[in-house]
Amino acid sequence: MTMAKENIYISWHYTTHGTAFLQHQLAAFWRGELQLSEKPLYKEGLCQLELSEAFSASRQPGFLFDRVYYLCAEQAVLDRLSLRRLSYRKNMYEVDKAVAETQMQEVWREVIAQDLPSWVDEMAYVKAHYSSRLGDFEGQIWRDMQHYPIDSQLAWFRRKSPAAPYYRARFEAVHFSQEELPNLRDEQSILAVLQGFFKNILAHHGAEANYIINVSLGSNETQVAWFVLAEAGLLPPNCRFIKVYDVKTKGKDPRFKNFQIQEIPSRLISSLSANLYEHDNLQSPLRRLADLKMKTYIEQGFAILILGERGTGKSRMISRLERENRKVLAINCASFDDDNKAESEFFGHAKGAYTGAEQAKKGLFEEARDGILFFDEVHHLSKRVQGKLMKALQTDENNNYRFRPMGDSQEQQSQFTAVFASNKSIEELRELLLADFFDRISQLLIELPPLRESRDEIEKDWETVWTQLRFAPSYPCPKSPELFRWLKKQPLWGNFRDLQKIAIYYKAFLDLPKEAQQLEGVEQPLDFAKKEFKAYHGHFPKQTKLPRAFQELFDLELIASETKEKTYKILEKRYKKALIAWVEENFPAQQVWEILDMSESSYYKMKKEG
Q1: 232 with 340, same domain?
Q2: pLDDT of 556
Q3: Any domain includes 276
Q4: Which residues form the Sigma-54 factor interaction domain (predicted)?
Q5: CA distances from 273 to 323, 347, 467 (A)
Q6: pTM for this structure?
């Protein structure tokens, strides 16, 4: 029997955001606002007032984390970081809306004036002096939670918070002594305690658990430490980073603004270097054109279709939009083995819509509101799903998409930019897709050129790929003229993926022991990379689009209509012309006459005669 993976939540405590804010984060998952699917976590407009009551309500559609680890420095260390808890309490009762509405200003003024050590002592004081207002006071404690000492906050979360019945046994405060962590501005100490912490929890939960780490709380140095550990490969593979922050201008209560939860790359530096080839200084006119088109088209709101061979960077073009702080949701259309699952993923479903639909679920159309929805490998969609999408992708007079979740009678609407991608040609897509669906998704078209059509950038592309693979500093990027001459001659049918394979072979040879290098029969890493790449990857593509001349050559109907006029020499001439066109389309100019097995002069003579 396969055991479900554990879900682990990890966050630092910070003086400006206390355990009540932690409760609100957990409540967002409990209410089903976010699910741990393969999609990036993203939810905006989370209302703290509503979430403060989520655990007091009936069963919610979301889930509980199996374990919550709350990382805490000692109070003296926290006080060195910020003393706002000592000063901000003095006027809390004057600015808090709920305190005013319930006429609790006098109670809070007197409580704060006593300067009691914890909320427990404050409740005892209220019970003794304002017994009739004890219930109101207890219900408002969370509103001032960040101003209590850390031990008092932890006691409230375990004993009195609405989350306590659910998380008391799942919650663990991880205390770092002042000797271990003397300063939250000391990166070295932070890295040391985090490494020890992860060593312990990995021994308990294993590397297969899902680890959700809120990197936005703590200090600037704790945030840096998370990224350093990720870049060094010292975190489990299933770690996902989120940032949680409030939107200062929005919220039902002046003190408690709405907040959002957004997943961010755990290996931020690598994710940036992996896309260095996409920048404003592109040399290739074709790549520059594709880049400029995307920058322009993405602002217009029309459906965009990106075409390009495998490995040309279609998904990376979308990733760049995420780095521009745009909201992007992506789905691989090849992942659906069932039309109902595809429909549910796109439009969502009501509870009981089909067998196994135990809870209502939001679809991508709703979650992508005001953002970008990316449909990768769109050619894999079935005709039935295409038909469903075709109707939903028709905008109304306000540019809204209208859709109906499975099993729901109510139509919903959403507004986002739809971007589609495929490695098929226009001609192939017209055969694979419904005509109306193709027209709907290709309002604007962007074509990414293969590397063999932008050879001027091969040196830059090679350096980008080498950097992306994150080899150790002891393996500097090779840049020999011989290497670049060879790369420029390769068709690179896999484009950037082929460059990655070549780089991996090159570096692998350097790691081989001397005996293995000798047995391979080559002395240089480039020779080894050439040999391995030619043996396993340097073949022609299985499917290659033929030039029009080649298509006409084998057009039986056309040949039959011209049989009386054709002679052997005419057919031979026609074939040679088609063959030249095909080679010219698919190989570098330097290789054309070599592949045709003729001299350069013969090649140009035959072209002239053709």
Answers
A1: no
A2: 47
A3: no
A4: 315-503
A5: 12, 35, 7
A6: 0.50
